[in-house]
Amino acid sequence: MGAFQENFLWGGAVAANQCEGAWDEDGKGISTADCITAGAVDKEREYTRGVVEGRYYPSHDAIDFYHRYQEDIALFAEMGFKCFRTSINWTRIYPHGDETEPNEKGLQFYDDLFDECLRYGIEPVVTISHYETPYYLVEKIGSWRSREMIEHYLDFCRTIFKRYRNKVKYWMTFNEINVIILKPEIAAGLRLEEGENWDQMIYQSAHHMLVASAKAVKLGHEINPEFQIGMMMLYPTFYGETCHPLDQLKCMQAIDMHYLFSDVQVRGAYSRKAEKFFEQKGIRLQTEEGDWAALKKGTVDYIGFSYYNSNVASREMKKDMTAGNMLHTVKNPYLKTSDWGWTVDAVGLRLALNYLYDRYQIPLFVVENGLGAVDTVEKDGSIHDSYRISYLREHIEQMELAVEEDGVELMGYTPWGCIDLVSAGTGEMKKRYGFVYVDRDNEGNGTLQRSKKDSFEWYKKVIASNGACLD
Question: Pairing relation of β-strands 228-234 and 302-306?
Fold first, then answer.
């Protein structure tokens, strides 16, 4: 079809805390991700205070990417990846988060990882902070409640920007930054303390993250003007349940909660609507004089976003609800759902691309999209995941339409979990996204052997044809 630009960034995405393992090796400190138990083993996932003996924490071993990255990057190269999105585990570099000197062994690991990518012509796309915060700083200063976190984060950024200035071009400051309003313990290591006001705590912490992001963008551009530094958000396409005006109002209000974050990072200021929201909620941000200038100077170069499913907003409280990437909304009778109840809605991705591009007019990057499913290994070792191929095909077709018919400027596409990894939402291995199967179960058993699924060869053809061959 020729919809995508010649240098379109085809690839795949993972997160350090969901694939690396080696949680306490080579000087790495404890992160918040290391304190989250597995929902498949414990009836409910729990964010524990520290690491409790006898509990199972899936991030501790994950899929052992830390020791197997060469094998995995070779598989990505075989598929023809142009880029690979991963993250840098903060506590590999600063074990407590406030040291004056970084951990050299941690820095060397990412040197080796990026070198391996570049050897195959694969551009690293790096999320600076992806759902992990130094646990020491959670206990010491309350994580992002404290302005001190801004400087600790900037120290981390300064170190990795300088170290990898000639190896990494594409960066994102925080993964799904807006998830702080949905799952603050995952996104920012935050738990509501007794007597604390939820809204005040969440949006004050978010303000600190937004200022930190803006200052990081400015810092990165000073270190290397060629850096492309983006934001990253969970994009929740919303539909009103009916054409009733109040359903449409609910729909607008639902998405506005998320645009608050992209407005600040792209436009450099809170919108008047956000200010009114703070006023109505009694939220009084504690700010410093330099915050507003920092936000204005640190606007991002592009918008990275995740899209898995769409959602329905209703003026009425409903009992019949469905799940979907941190959100629980009214069921959509027109759409099928995944094994985990997430709606499958490729057109919703086209809408997301249009809504974001019309609003901001800067390049977009679909950095997460995929189908979590139960895969079956046949007796001969093959894995026939036609359902995953169908999902991805439909979404790529809608991306093509957004580019070719709607004029959206799209940089690239990195489907989530290009290799099976630990689910952030449930802690399961059973919920698989990858083109590559990893022999590991929900209890941490298995050989960790890597196997190609049918989708592996399919995606290889997609990349080779620059999206023209989707059969």
Answer: parallel
